[in-house]
# Entry
Amino acid sequence: MFSGIRGRLIVIAAVLGIAAAGWVVNGINFGLDLQGGMHLALEVDDPDGTLTPEALADATDQNLQILRNRIDQFGVSEPLVQKVGSDRIIVELPGMDDPDRAKAIIEQQAFLEWKLVRPTQEFRNAIDRLDRTVAAGLAAAGMAPADTVVAQDTVAAAATTQDIRELVFGRQDSTAVDSTAAADTAMSAAARQRPLGSLLLDSGSDGEFLVLEQDVDKVKRYLALPGVVDALPRRSELRWGNEPRGQGAQLYRSLYFLDAQPFITGERLNGATAGRDPQFNKTIVTFELDRRGGRVFEQVTGENIGNRIAIVLDTLVHSAPEVISRIGSNGQIDMGQAPMEEASDLALVLRAGALAKPLAIVEQRSVGPTLGQDSIDQGKLAGIIGIVGVVLLMMVYYRVSGILAIAALLCYVLLVLGGLATIGATLTAPGIAGFILSLGMAVDANVLIFERIREELINGRSTRAAVDEGFKHAMSAIVDSNLTTLITALILFQVGTGPVRGFAVTLSIGIVASFFTAVYITRTFFLVYMNRRRPSEPISI
# Structure
């Protein structure tokens, strides 16, 4: 059926239709050098130089795989994530229009832990020791006693807030709250005697304290003083909440009293999905643990009904729900009123896994769309000049046969662009070079065929016989040149990276398209042309 002219035309129309549909539906993806985007150079963050070269290289390899997983799920078209040297990772994100979001996803360590919240009373029992340690640290640092006094505006605001009538470490007289001046005096005295304790307010939830947002940095400085962490009860720690929360007219930050060791980590995570809680209209991230993680989670929650469990991500507590009943392998992270995009990003990094070591950005560049447009314009100009030159040469030198070859080359262009779009390949500046090179090879194949036809005509063969013999004898040379170039392109794709692979992909598609064009489409056009002429009528070649 497809051996005749009609059948061949049907095949050509079907192939061109598929290519055109792929081009229209998918479009052409442009690389970083053409459409702009982000370029980041990352290294393992080791400011103290404690990692050995072997440990540094191992952490870099692990982070490389994690970053690939994250960026693949991020949805950027044709990203580049590759290792350079032994300790550097290059990330290129074409078309990225939100660099801050991309950096947040790349840099987030995403180390997830579940820890038990410890009783408030246990912390109260240790507060005197903690305050003495803080006071000693302040004295050793040469800080004046006034540095430990709560600011007047902070005290006044705190004294008028109903939810903090009672400090964790002492009960205020209700009459003192009625007078701002009296509250100032009482709390200032408490601040001198309890530099840390006077800043921690009762949240109403076990194991959780509130710190006025403006006092957070002060509390962090106190906790960083020598010996303070060691003064905590054994196998315990303090962790901050991930974001401030409003209460009355003030902003507070939660400080949680937790077990130092997690009972399960994100290594047992199977999946995570962003969503909305329809009952409370909150943004959540639901998670699923593997079988072993589910057993551990079920056992711990069963033993701690009525207690709280903190979900800690990168040292910050995202939520600390109370255990109401035994929980299996599924749970959720409460993100309050956070936007869905933030929840989606969190679910993404949790699915991809935690970085082996934190990463630091050592170089960041942005390729603007203007530079990319200049590259596109120059590539178009080069392509137009090359195509016009080839068209003129073929028409002048080969006349009617040259016109048939030009028609076939137009089909070749459609096939290459449709092929790139169909497989989702990205066109880069080197890819344009590969396209122009394969165009030259398509022309070269036609030249081989036409010269063989001329030789057969000189030897006295008829037009139809000369065309048949010309295509037949030129076939071996065409196959040889295309096959060797295709093998080279495949090797480049296998061992190359980035632009080299883009060149190899475009060249490979171009070679296949040029072979089909020269051997099948050009010959079909010859058959159509000769079918409308007398067998003895000479052909213009």
